[in-house]
Amino acid sequence: MKKAWTSAIALAVLAGFTALSVGAAEVRDDAIGLSKTSVFDVPSPDAFAYSDKAPNKSGVLPRAYEGAPPEIPHSIDEFVPIKADENSCLGCHDKPALMGKKIKEMATAMPESHYTSVDGKWQRNNNRYVCTQCHVPQANVKDLVGNTFKAQ
Questions:
Q1: Among 20-34, 38-52, 76-90, 100-114, whose mean pLDDT is lowest?
Q2: Where in the chain does DSSP place strands (E)?
Q3: Which sequence spans correspond to the domains of the chain?
Q4: Is the pLDDT of residue 19 over 70?
Q5: Radius of gyration (Cα) for the chain, nearest Å?
Q6: Is the pLDDT of residue 82 over 70?
């Protein structure tokens, strides 16, 4: 008797799922997600290039919003990988005497948050050596996905 009930319930469940699937609408693969292309297409984004200006001639890029970390206006291909004992960014940006000053002819000095004051002398905070964790190089490319973000 128990087998008969189990079989009857299994058939009822199967019939219910069959009835549901018959009326289900088909969803095409190019109607899923933000991209309106097939999920099987292999994307090939446009090639991009960083500014060919020397790093100290690249200028300062506008911040995305107040408090945002500055963007890197030049290529960093020669500077990576960045390691604690091998950081090429420091050669131009480690200038504690220039903190907060904007000098057009020189690279932007790291801010006070990247240093520690010990006995009145500024020393670099060695916990902040992975520059690309916050700062990213920028190239002139078009958005892959539309963006309407505006800082307030």
A1: 20-34
A2: 115-118, 121-124
A3: 53-141
A4: no
A5: 28
A6: yes
The answer to whether 80 and 133 have CB atoms below 8 angstroms apart is: no
For residue 24, give the 3-state DSSP assignment.
Answer: coil
Find, among 45, 105, 107, the residue nearest to 76 by Cα: 107
Report whether 113 contacts 127 (CB < 8 A).
no
Look up residue 10 and give its two tokens. 């299994």
* Measured distance CA(79)–CA(86) in Å, rounded: 9
**Distance between CA atoms of residues 99 and 17, nearest Å:** 68
- Distance, CA of 73 to CA of 62 (rounded, Å): 10
- Nearest by Cα to 94 from 80, 79, 114, 73: 114
pTM over 0.70: no
Give the C-alpha separation, 81 to 78, whole Å. 9
Q: Residue 89 and residue 55: Cα distance in Å, rounded?
A: 11
- What single-letter amino acid sits at 58? S
Q: What share of the chain is helix, strand, coil (3-state, %, to 5)?
A: 25, 10, 65
